[in-house]
Amino acid sequence: MKKQFAIIGLGRFGSSMCRELHHMGHEVLAIDHNPKKVEAMEPFSTHTMVLDTTDENNLIRIGIKNFEHVIVAIGENIQASILTVLHLKDLEIPEVWVKAQNSYHHKVLEKIGADRIFHPEEEMGNRIAEFLTSEKVLDYIDLSVDYSIVELLATEKIAGKTLVDLDIRAKYGCTVIAIKQKNKVDVTPDPNETLNKGDILVMIGDKKDLRRFQDGVL
Ligand code: ATP
Predict the structure, then answer these.
(1) Considering the chain, what percentage of its residues have pLDDT values greater than 90?
(2) In this protein, which residues make up the domain named RCK N-terminal (predicted)?
């Protein structure tokens, strides 16, 4: 379904979001107070606007109230980010998603009602660290400080075994939520089906348990 998004702040994060959402077929309004940034996004957005979003009247004037979903990707200027979010929540925008610069910024954003807060650099850093430390990890999503979802490559050590044989939930406390084989993704994996080398196990659990499973079984 086609949705409408406004993106405020066209640095690396904001402009990547803009390109991707536009590429996915959504309507995207790209906003920045720097005309050069705005111009660069013209081919990758539906509408663009040069605007200082710390002034509430500017936001009202462009009809920001018509947007259900606004992403604030102003990073370095924390004051500008906070003021912008404050106005957006005052204007009752239902979904305001914000890029946070640090934990203090995060706390303030929470207090003023940001609906979702991202730490892209940190999240990407954690992700890359996981890839670097194990060649069995193919993908990784941080759910919280303790929990994650990982895609793990089945080695010959478990080839020919079934999920029942491995007894993963009882022994390791984590769960296989899907198995990918070639182009097929099975989201209700049969616990009695044998695994092959090269299958990809999509697993959810405590990071420590997932690491124990990786080191002990794969
Ligand atoms: P990234 O890491 O995504 O490149 P960043 O964390 O370095 O971004 P900035 O470059 O400080 O963040 O901000 C992102 C964008 O937000 C910039 O293009 C900047 O011009 C824009 N911006 C900053 N303040 C305002 C404002 N008051 N109104 C509109 N845009 C703003």
Answers:
(1) 80
(2) 2-118
